[in-house]
Write a structure and sequence with these properties.
Elements lengths: L3 E4 L2 E4 L4 E7 L7 E8 L6 E6 L6 E3 L7 E6 L4 E6 L8 E11 L11 E4 L3 E6 L1
Parallel strand pairs: 2-11
Antiparallel strand pairs: 1-3, 3-8, 4-5, 4-9, 5-6, 7-8, 9-10, 9-11
């Protein structure tokens, strides 16, 4: 069974930075697209960023483009989300997730495209 564990969340002032990590178990981590999602109270879970199996392709929500960077280290079974110039509207629970299929796929934008999820880590940005 695949397990994903996020860490690195916390409380930060607007303009600050955080780096989230997601440690994955499983022998086939390196062949899957990984995504970061977030969910604020009363809102739907939304894609923040995604990265394909070898890091050659990344995608970002317009709201975080230029501020956030997704990366991965397959040797460590870990995916990262570097968050800079944080804003209060970034406040949410952040989840990492593994895609349902191996290697590259056009299906990576929606929650239904992922089958394993971490427990989430809270990010709170104060004004």
């Amino acid at each position: 069974q695949v397990q994903l564990v996020e860490s690195g969340g916390g409380l930060v002032q607007a303009g600050g930075s955080l780096r989230l990590s997601c440690a994955a178990s499983g022998r086939t981590f390196s062949s899957y697209t990984m995504g970061w999602f977030r969910q604020a109270p009363g809102k739907e879970r939304e894609l923040v960023a995604a990265i394909n199996w070898n890091g050659g392709f990344t995608a970002y929500a317009d709201s975080v483009k230029g501020r956030f960077t997704i990366s991965r280290d397959n040797a460590k079974n870990t995916v990262y989300l570097q968050m800079n110039i944080l804003k209060p509207e970034d406040t949410a629970v952040y989840y990492c997730a593994r895609s349902t299929t191996r290697y590259d796929s056009a299906l990576y934008r929606r929650t239904r495209d992922y089958d394993y999820w971490g427990q989430g880590t809270q990010v709170t940005v104060s004004s």
